[in-house]
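Researcher: Go.
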Amino acid sequence: AALPRNDRRQIGELSARISMANYLKPFWIAAAALVLVPAWTPVQAESTPAPQQIQPAVAAQTNTREIVLQLGKRTISLRENGKVLGSWPVAIGDPSTPTPLGKFAVQNKVVNPKYQSTKSGKINSTVGPNGPFGDRWLGFKQSGLNQYGIHGTPAAWAWTVTSRAAVTNGCVRMLHEHVRALFDQVEVGTPVIVQL
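Model: Structure:
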């Protein structure tokens, strides 16, 4: 038995809409990636061990510390059972490339990270305190090829932290001595709470 003409027309229209949506889907995804994520990612320096991977089930049970980033105050603090262990000034994402809000966890810790452009693939070979990420990286949110993180700041950009500027591509910049102190007190799986 054939479908009535009206049903065949509706199925044909629906099929055309689905085909068009499937055709445009890669373009929507690509456009969203260009707008929503920064064009860089940390790269592991050759001399350091591979970054640790998150193990949520274990981390959730054993970790009593949390990193709290308050975007409005432009401060980051380390807390344990509600007690502040340390609090430091930060630079945060520019309004056009904001630091993401929400609850995350430290995904990796890297000493002497290298900067790699996800657009060109080029790696900036400068590592350590003068590298774009300084000498410490705490990645907390993956977004495609990019990762948001808390990292050090070269001396030339230290003013962005001391003035608590909103100038980054979404990452959180700290002064070297501050990010080192934070880095040494947290582990992969430590909660990262980003709030207004």
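Model: Helices lie at 5-36, 56-62, 158-162, 176-185.
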